[in-house]
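Changelog-adjacent note: as of this version, every example in the card shows the full chain rather than a window. The one below runs 149 residues end to end.
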Amino acid sequence: MTIGVERILPAARDRLVTVGQECRLTEAARLLSAPGRQMVIVCDGAGIMAGVVTRTDIVRQMRHCRGCACTAVCAAVMTTDVVSCRPEDRLQDIWSTMKDRGLQNVPIVDPEGRPVGLLSAADAVQALLSEVEYEEELLKGYVMCVGYR
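Full-length structure tokens:
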């Protein structure tokens, strides 16, 4: 069986946090201080993903600032070469990319490039493992002729 990214879209939507390009980095830092938040997606005026800001981006920039007096905006420090996926993509393919590149999160975007969720590695692994367990149970039932009398 093939699992699509859309299967975990409800959890991914809950994790999604977006800001505009002119949002101050200090505001992005505040948003990222929430437990479990690893990434903020930066969108242009049309709501299309322009990049992402991570905790690492903020720490890197803070060495040039004076704490809360930092006036840098997200657009100045965001990562623009972003790996993303779409709801119709195969979760196995996205997981392989995440694993190969060492990514913990991948934005999920619609066909126009608007963010609709944030896929976490933990959710991907959990969904893939549950699918394997389900297939194992089906095979076990088949081999033991359970339900085939």
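Structural remarks: DSSP finds six helices and five strands in the chain.
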